[in-house]
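[User]
If only I could read backbone structure tokens as easily as an amino acid sequence. I have put the entry right below:
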Amino acid sequence: MTISIEQRLQRRHQVEVMEHRVEDYALTFEQESLRDTVGRALGTLAEGSDTVAERSDATPWAADMAPWQRACAIGVTDLSHVGQDGALVELALCVELMGRRLLRVPFVETLIGIQVLSAIGHPQTETLLQQAVAGNEFLALCPVPGSRLVPGAAATRFVVRLQPGEIILVESTEPAPSIHNAAGIALGTDDTPGSRTTTLLAGAGADDVARSARAAWRVLQAAALGGAASPAVDLALSFATSRHTRGVPIGSLQGISHPLATCHVRLASLTNLVRRAAWFQDHEPDSYPELPAAALLTALAASRFCVETAVHVHGGAGVALESPVSDHFTWVQATSVVAGTRRHLLDEVGRTLLDRAAQEGGPHGLRTS
């Protein structure tokens, strides 16, 4: 059988894709250097204000402006610009650190908003884009059409809405009202006074940009949830090894040690899935489109299990407002509200897998008739 040059090139391309797919998601030297640099820029949680009085302030996220602007100064927001190949993996590393730091500013929404604005290139958003990249302005994002809760809307006047068939920018005279008991994150409603709407992009192109932005938002949201849950497990482990009962550390008891071991397994699995989803979203977004939703679904379950386990290990001290572990618990619970329901994500992942199996057919696929 004669094979044309075009077929040979196509086969060669398929082989190259298979050869260059990443299977080991351990960090490279450059990625470890990036993680260390961003970690130093963000500082530790102890550097931020964290008193009970400041938690009840009308704008608690204002205390986290300094570490966010330091991260912007070293170029974290530059990674969100269109044209930065392979940047989502690095962004996930940065966002994970921001989650560990429990930043209350809308960092995920601002990063995805920058991606959307730079992809569209609308002339009316050029100044806003520059301000967001510099860390002087936040962007809110409404990834779910019709949602009353808008992540980041309480900290900015600008909301990027991903609607079916169009992407719009809503500019209001002042930020939206904040949601109470939301761990201090800038979660607002869609009740924006004096708002002005600008259609940035419409048609099939808008759906493509929205699909990519929504997938990236899910990956980064999953990374942030995993980052916030990890220190809670560290706190629980330290408490379990120092607290004694009947002459032995409580960590030696199966009721404590087994859940903590499960936390480690679930967080390690989540980290690997987030990096895998980020890599495929960067290089082969159409190969496994279910990965971003699967990563967020896994993050919702793993992060909640970890912070609930951490609170349980601490006992009565875990539910005290002054307890460090309670900060991670409330941050994860509040952030999970806007991530979507598990049932919706499960349906989406299942439908995507069934659709691909039906298209592939053959011995490894599913034919529907």
Summary: The beta strands are 140-142, 149-151, 158-163, 166-171, 187-189, 196-202, 244-245, 248-249. The first helix runs from residue 5 to 20.
